[in-house]
Amino acid sequence: MMRHSAVLVLTGSLLIWPAGALLAQELMQETAQESEPDSVDTTSVEPEDSESALNREQKRRLGEAIALHDQGRYDEAIAAYRLLLDEDPKNGEFWYELAFSLFSAGRNEECVEAGETSATLAKGSLAHLEAPSLAVVGNCLDHLGETRKALEVYRRALKLSPEEATLNFNYAITLANEGELDAAIAAAGQAVISKPEWPSPHFVLAQLYDRGDYRVPAFFSALRALILEPSSPRASQAVSILLQRLQAGVSRKDETNITINIDPGSSKKFGDFSTVELMMSLSAGSWTLEEDAGLTPADSVVSSVVSVVKVAGEVGSEGVEPVLVETLAVLGTLSEKELIEPLVYRSLAEFQVEGAEAWLQENPSRLMELQLWINEQ
């Protein structure tokens, strides 16, 4: 995918995203529905009965069909699976792989039938296929526009595998598109907890918090997402969230007349972040003074983010939603290692914020320290 070409510009003391923040719906369309892992490792299954046992020739042909799928040759893979099913129509493994290839090929009605058959046949040593089969069915129903049915199927799958990351992720996407925001946040949060190294749930969670006007959760979730993926269209959305949430409540009439509005009734649904919100607004409100002192726009943003993360660590995480506790712990570690600076400069440089690239060129060792830390996680 091509990178967005939007550039941050400085208007007075405020950083503005020219085209506005991309809507959460666009991110939903970009990422939905993802299905990890791509296929089931057939070589590790120990058969318990003759129906589920694969002979050497079947294993070879199944492996070839999976290889065709992995090469994007979905129609050829589908034909290969159907030949296997002609010989062994009650093999749940074949039905699952067929359903997955049908979904990938956009043949959603056929996918629903194959996935339901796979789920029904997922017994004994193949019981582990029931939840993935239902997940594929849910994806295909969602693509057919049968959203309520899709949600029902996802819930059936989640009863079998409540912590599975991809399942929770796709469930969150469908819930969000139905307007069930809080439930979508919960599902996306579970996906982040279950598979923290996977970027997609982090970006979606940040968008969902942003859609719900949850200022601090959106800010921290966007920042954590940028650790995993600093350069992409959805990274540009995360940078937009970061800047807009940092500046929320700050208005400027002229260089000496800056108003900071703090909402005492802001939602505490995911934790009491009143002190953090105050720091966000105060730090963003000081950008004019920093500009006068010779700091670049990037310097001002980075200084604010560093201060906000530090305050969040001092406030503690009592009563905070579990996924945000994990996020604050990760960011707290970066803060202790003084790696918030290279993280934010790196993200701002990708989108040409003035001063960011120059800082990176002057501090290559700091960027290397950040990358080494990320690689170790």
Shape: elongated
Strand content: under 5%
Order of helices and strands: EEHHHHHHHHHHHHEEHHHHHHH
Number of domains: 2
Helix fraction by DSSP (H/I, runs of at least 4): 55-70%
Largest sheet: spatial strand order? 1-2
Class by alpha and beta content: mainly alpha
Report the oligomer.
single chain
Individual helix count: 19
The biggest beta sheet is recorded as: 2 strands, antiparallel
Distance between the termini: 26 Å
Q: Unreliable segments (pLDDT under 50, ≥5 consecutive)? A: 1-32, 36-52
Q: What radius of gyration results from the CA coordinates? A: 24 Å
SSE layout and pairing:
Elements lengths: L8 E3 L2 E3 L7 H8 L24 H15 L3 H14 L4 H13 L3 H14 L8 H14 L3 H14 L4 H13 L3 H14 L4 H13 L3 H14 L4 H15 L2 E5 L2 E4 L13 H12 L1 H6 L4 H19 L6 H15 L3 H11 L5 H7 L1 H13 L1
Antiparallel strand pairs: 1-2, 3-4
In short:
With 377 residues, this protein is mainly alpha-helical. It is built from 19 helices and four strands.
Description of the molecule:
- The protein is built from 19 helices and 4 strands.
- By secondary structure, the chain is mainly alpha-helical.
- The model is unreliable at 1-32 and 36-52 (pLDDT under 50).
- A hairpin with a 2-residue loop joins strand 1 and strand 2.
- The protein starts with 8 loop residues before the first strand and ends with a helix.
- Strands 1-2 form a two-stranded antiparallel ribbon. Strands 3-4 form a two-stranded antiparallel sheet.
- It folds into 2 domains: 1-22 and 197-260 and 270-377, no CATH class; 37-161, Tetratricopeptide repeat domain (Serine Threonine Protein Phosphatase 5, Tetratricopeptide repeat), CATH 1.25.40.10.
- The protein has helices spanning 24-31, 56-70, 74-87, 92-104, 108-121, 130-143, 147-160, 165-177, 181-194, 199-211, 215-228, 233-247, 274-285, 287-292, 297-315, 322-336, 340-350, 356-362, 364-376, and strands at residues 9-11, 14-16, 250-254, 257-260.
- The longest helix is centred in the last third of the chain and has 19 residues, at 297-315.
